[in-house]
Amino acid sequence: MQYRSFQGTAIAEIGLGTWQLGSADWGVVNHEEAYAILKSYTDAGGNFIDTADVYGMGISEKVIGEFLKQNKTEVFVASKLGRRGDGNNGWPQNFDYDTMKRHVEDSLAHLDISQLFLEQLHCIPTDELRSGKVFDHLRKLQDQKLIKHWGVSVETTEEALICLDQEGVASLQIIFNLFRQHIADEIFAKAKEKGIALIVRVPLASGLLTGKFNEQTRFAAKDHRNFNAKGEAFNAGETFSGIDFNEGVRLSNEIKSLLPDDRMAQWALRWILDHPEVTTVIPGASKVSQVQSNVAASGLQSLSEEIHNNLRRLYDQQIKPIIRGHY
Ligand SMILES: NC(=O)c1ccc[n+]([C@@H]2O[C@H](COP(=O)([O-])OP(=O)(O)OC[C@H]3O[C@@H](n4cnc5c(N)ncnc54)[C@H](OP(=O)(O)O)[C@@H]3O)[C@@H](O)[C@H]2O)c1
């Protein structure tokens, strides 16, 4: 495993996304499997785990907390807040200081730790970012030492640019992969110039970029790849990166033909790591074998310039015009 600097802390360039460990929105990952996924990740040298208070309403955070207690390896946990609550994600009351503090304290209790390495706003309304009060609240939570760093998970370039201008922001979490490349052109250089870490989510386009799906693939009723395939429940970008599923299957076969060999998931991650502005990429996993495959991307050589150019051409010509979800 190779490591990159997150505000001076060496974190694994392959992190672990744990939406799946909430055992909701992806189907069931039972407690033993969840624990084994965490163990295989840290055994491979991984030390950066992304979770959120809403992943299974605390289930993901709790299994991570249990794991941390029983395994003494140093792990940097990033959580998120802002989407708890019934109805409209608990908005806007989630963004007053007292509620934010209570949500941080709940995450700390689930994780059984006294300080979060990183707390992130979880794709909250753009107007809340524009108003700026949430950033004051995060600075106050940092002053109180409840969180070491704070960052923002964003959906659009506009949101990213608002956040990059905030005093004290440590990181941005973005969707960036072979299907969804546009944000790079507008924010990578600025993030690098300002020393702000970039955390890349949905790197495998919810599994499409592993090449394992075909037109016959179906997902369970409670899997977001069923109920949000066209962005019916939340931003379309979070599911298949905003690409129509059948088009995504076809295009992933085209991408596969441009890669050095059939290790498609690993090359899709390698492609992201080949961008030096990226600090860590956080593939999610529902099986130990997936973690083992994903961490191996850190040991691959970079893709050649020729392959990068071919992939960019395919993106510009066939993918960019059809990608959905606001950005
Ligand atoms: N708004 C936000 O802030 C936000 C939104 C989305 C995600 N996230 C974070 O980002 C993380 C990553 O995104 P994601 O999980 O949505 O999407 P992803 O990483 O693109 O896709 C994960 C899925 O891909 C499949 N997969 C992973 N590795 C594989 C491998 N080596 N071989 C074959 N299949 C593999 C698995 O599908 P199967 O389970 O079907 O096998 C897995 O559940 C999340 O876990 C979460 O921590 C944050």
Task: Give an overview of the whole structure.
The chain is of the alpha/beta class and 327 residues long. It has one domain: TIM Barrel (Alpha-Beta Barrel), CATH 3.20.20.100. β1 and β2 form a beta hairpin. The longest helix is centred in the N-terminal third of the chain and has 15 residues. The mean pLDDT is 96. The site of NADP nicotinamide-adenine-dinucleotide phosphate has 30 residues, from α11.
- What's the Cα radius of gyration? 18 Å
Number of helices: 12
Helix-strand string: EEEHEHEHEHHEHEHEHHHEHH
What class do helices, strands and sheet pairing give?
Answer: alpha/beta
Quick one: how many beta strands?
A: 10
Helix content: 25-40%
State the distance separating the first and last CA atoms: 32 Å
* Binned strand content: 5-15%
Largest sheet: 8 strands, parallel
Name the poorly predicted regions.
Answer: none
Mean pLDDT: 96
Assigned CATH architecture: Alpha-Beta Barrel
The distinct ligands, each listed once, are:
NADP nicotinamide-adenine-dinucleotide phosphate
Q: Could you give the topology of this structure?
A:
Blueprint: E1 3-6, E2 9-12, E3 16-17, H1 31-43, E4 48-50, H2 59-70, E5 76-81, H3 97-111, E6 116-122, H4 126-131, H5 133-143, E7 147-153, H6 157-164, E8 171-175, H7 182-194, E9 197-201, H8 224-227, H9 245-258, H10 264-273, E10 280-281, H11 288-295, H12 305-319
Parallel strand pairs: 3-4, 4-5, 5-6, 6-7, 7-8, 8-9, 9-10
Antiparallel strand pairs: 1-2
Helix pairs in contact: 1-2, 1-11, 2-3, 6-7, 9-12
